[in-house]
Design a protein that fits this description.
Helix content: under 10%
Strand order of the largest sheet: 3-4-7-10-13-17-21-25-28-31-35-32
Oligomer: single chain
Shape: elongated
Radius of gyration: 37 Å
Strand content: 25-35%
Largest sheet: 12 strands, mixed
Number of strands: 54
Mean pLDDT: 83
Low-confidence stretches: 1-19, 27-45, 526-554
Length: about 550
């Protein structure tokens, strides 16, 4: 497909009159709480609030078991202020469904707004008891605006038997022209023919949402998109499909083609049981897909597959620690028209929406990106801590790994060489490339060069990690800096304490003593035995016999 067609398709996608913006939270403090979410990758304090369009309308607070009946009642009697609006907050707990939960469902002819929010903690919607081939939740209505926040949906089973479509095990979004938003939701352990977690045939935005451990017998284990879908900070993990798109399948369902936007999202550990990379373990794209700051990791058998008729582009930045090939800046190309400069009919990109954006087009058909990671990681020995286009356009990324550190592939900061090792050059790739510290020196963690052992200690071992090196210089000896063997105090002197640093630290022998080998001995008499003078260690031995004349002479001199 020509670049011109791709640019036109991207322009058409950006021109769709649908604002992919997160609904503004209501300013009324009574309508929002701060909860701690810790499910499937969502951690920390998270604000879950009703959208601003709920202000001025009546808000009902219910227990989980009351949600179904309250939703039906609210939809039937919603007052038009300024349009029919139904806003419900739900206490944390579990709702066990016996039939699909219907949200919207064409209850009003125009602009019906419905919000279901769990401000006090996750609300689990368990659809394991639903029969009849339908999934857990259906959002429907050509003029419905739905906002679902803080919900965990599990156990949905959509099949194409008993009148079911087989689509959307967790959530089925159908014919929603306005907007359906999932915010801080979790869809786990749901299954369907298409879209084990979510099936979208309308307009769907997802924020801070997790699609995990879902299954589709055909395609789209986590998500099957046949409409317009935008994800922001969404995790699609450990989903699987029988035929294609283990994590996500972006089909070609709408007349204008399905469009998918992946922002700051992660697709990891998704799989299709096939050795053929075209099935797309992470993503199978048959429509139009735009990506930015999104990463694919450990999907099988491939990260993504872009079909021969599909359109896909990646806009920088990538996540830190990654890069992408073929980057160009989207600029307006000009041609000569009747002797004057004018925009060329053939444009490489959509300059209306992406002027001056650095991007790349993914190859059609042949590009399967079957490495462990896409975009690729910065190569080992380098750091990718910059979001600039220049630093994300090649595998060496921002800069070499600094001295004293090593950098595995995808590093955004160096890791110190372990204590006892050093790295004298930049670009060290792994810990085993760090050099062991030599004898007579020591290396704290992160050393670029060995440091000399100080005086008073002995460095007779390699890989010393602190200034104490191997041991304190022993009694009767002195150890200058970088000593790998102690030096005995000379005859006529002795070492009064351990840890001596130089010759001048040795002590001269006193009258009435004899000093040899760094030790001091007391003369008993001029003709017989002598013994070692006690130190703090006590008596170390007794000498008897030997060269009597030498002993007498030494003792006479007091040395």
């Amino acid at each position: 497909m020509s670049v011109l067609v791709l640019a036109a398709a991207l322009a058409a996608r950006s021109a769709v009159p649908h604002a992919h913006t997160r609904p503004t939270a209501a300013s009324d403090d009574r309508r929002k709480k701060v909860i701690g979410a810790s499910v499937g990758g969502l951690t920390g304090a998270t604000e879950i609030a009703l959208p601003s369009w709920c202000l001025g309308s009546q808000t009902m607070h219910v227990e989980p078991a009351e949600l179904e009946s309250e939703l039906r009642l609210c939809a039937e009697h919603a007052r038009p202020f300024p349009y029919p609006t139904c806003c419900i907050t739900v206490s944390n707990g579990t709702l066990r469904l016996s039939a699909p939960l219907l949200v919207g469902h064409g209850a009003h002819g125009s602009h019906f707004h419905v919000a279901i929010v769990a401000p006090d903690g996750p609300v689990v919607i368990d659809a394991s008891g639903v029969s009849g081939g339908q999934g857990a939740v259906t959002v429907e209505g050509i003029s419905t605006t739905a906002y679902l926040a803080g919900l965990t949906i599990v156990g949905g089973r959509a099949t194409d038997t008993a009148g079911g479509s087989g689509d959307g095990g967790g959530i089925f979004v159908a014919n929603v022209i306005d907007q359906c938003t999932l915010d801080h939701c979790v869809l786990r352990n749901n299954s369907a023919k298409r879209g084990g977690g979510v099936y979208n045939y309308g307009r769907l935005d997802m924020y801070d949402t997790v699609l995990a451990d879902n299954y589709a017998s055909k395609s789209g284990g986590g998500l099957y998109n046949e409409g317009e879908c935008t994800t922001t900070s969404v995790t699609v993990a450990n989903n699987s499909a029988g035929e294609a798109g283990g994590g996500v399948a972006n089909g070609a369902g709408h007349a204008n083609g399905s469009s998918l936007v992946l922002n700051s999202s992660r697709l990891a550990g998704n799989a299709v049981p096939s050795a053929d990379a075209i099935v797309g373990g992470g993503l199978r794209n048959d429509g139009t897909t735009l990506m930015s700051a999104t990463v694919f990791e450990h999907n099988s058998p491939s990260a993504l597959y872009n079909a021969p008729t599909a359109l896909a582009a990646y806009h920088l930045p990538t996540p830190l620690g990654h890069y992408i090939d073929g980057v160009f800046k989207c600029t307006l190309q000009r041609c000569l028209c009747d002797g004057l400069a004018c925009p060329c009919a053939y444009q490489r990109c959509d300059t209306t929406s992406y002027l001056n954006v650095s991007m790349t087009h993914l190859e059609q058909g042949a590009a399967t990106y079957d490495d462990d990671c896409f975009p690729p990681k910065c190569q080992s020995g380098f750091i990718g801590d910059s979001l600039s286009a220049a630093d994300q356009s090649s595998s060496i990324c921002a800069r070499p790994c600094p001295q004293g550190q090593w950098c595995a592939a995808g590093s955004i900061a160096g890791t110190n060489c372990s204590a006892g090792y050093f790295a004298p050059s930049v670009g060290t790739r792994k810990q085993t490339d760090c050099s062991p510290c030599t004898m007579g020196s020591y290396c704290p963690a992160g050393s670029s060069l060995p440091l000399p052992c100080p005086g008073g200690v002995l460095g007779n071992l390699t890989r010393a990690s602190s200034a104490g090196c191997a041991m304190t210089c022993p009694l009767g000896f002195y150890c200058p800096p970088q000593s790998i063997a102690p030096t005995a105090c000379p005859d006529g002197t002795y070492g009064a304490t351990a840890g001596l640093t130089n010759l001048s630290a040795c002590t001269a022998c006193e009258v009435g003593t004899f000093c040899a080998g760094g030790k001091r001995f007391r003369c008993i008499n001029a003709t017989h035995a002598w013994q070692e003078v006690p130190h703090v260690e006590g008596y170390l031995g007794v000498w008897d016999g030997g060269n009597q004349s030498a002993l007498r002479a030494a003792c006479a001199r007091g040395r």
